[in-house]
Write a structure and sequence with these properties.
alpha+beta; Pnp Oxidase, Chain A; Split barrel-like; globular
Length: 226
């Protein structure tokens, strides 16, 4: 894959990060957050209006997100990404991809929570130790070739008709669990929910069209277990 495609694969494979905001007095502030890249190339966040970072973003919407695989032993040698940009408040209907990974948070919407969409202006991509480059946010945050409706149609089909394939994918990854469902699909992999926890399973090769993703899923379902 090209540098851009590697960075996009990393972005769509992230669901946790650190959000850096600026307090009204100018002091910096960092907090942990769940996040999900959406089909439009934005990053979705769900925040409480009472949270410190939400107050900060109301004052100054410019912010930064740090994405990293939290399972890595040495974060300074691990692939990581810093996104620079700003946020907009969006309708709850635009947060469905986030809720696919974190369905328990749907009940938060009845409280004081709302969705933000992070607009990527530039990206600091570090694929490994002593490797770093700046990338244009429009290149990394480029929309997928299929919309959320098409994605969810594929997800529903897999969950309704191919439970055995989902268990096979889980076994391919070496995971164990009593319950598994498909939460989301993109060009670089899938999100499975294993006993309620989102788990990322990457594709061997990118699949940019919906039909190519279908072919990839079929091939993986037929792949022998190690």
């Amino acid at each position: 894959m090209t540098t851009i495609e590697e960075a996009r694969a990393f972005l769509f494979g992230a669901c946790h990060g650190a959000l850096a905001t600026r307090q009204p007095d100018g002091e910096p502030f960092a907090s942990a957050t769940n996040l999900v890249a959406d089909n439009n190339g934005r990053v979705l966040l769900l925040v409480s209006r009472l949270a410190e970072h939400a107050v900060n973003l109301d004052h100054a919407p410019e912010c930064s997100l740090l994405l990293i695989n939290r399972d890595e032993a040495d974060w300074q040698a691990a692939p990581r990404m810093s996104l620079v940009g700003g946020v907009d408040v969006v309708d709850n209907a635009e947060g469905e991809r986030y809720l696919s990974l974190f369905p328990h948070t749907r009940e938060y919407l009845a409280l004081d929570f709302h969705f933000l969409a992070f607009r990527i202006s530039k990206v600091r991509w570090i694929p490994g130790f002593a490797k770093a480059c700046w990338l244009d946010g429009a290149d990394v945050g480029f929309p997928l070739t299929f919309d959320h409706g098409r994605e969810m149609a594929m997800v529903r089909h897999m969950n309704d008709d191919h439970a055995d394939a989902l268990r096979h994918y889980m076994a391919l990854a070496g995971w164990q669990g009593d319950e598994v469902s498909l939460a989301a699909l993109d060009s670089w992999g899938m999100w499975l929910r294993v006993d309620g926890t989102p788990r990322r399973l990457a594709f061997a090769e990118p699949a940019f069209e919906a039909d190519a993703i279908r072919d990839t899923l079929v091939a993986m379902a037929r792949q022998p277990l190690p």
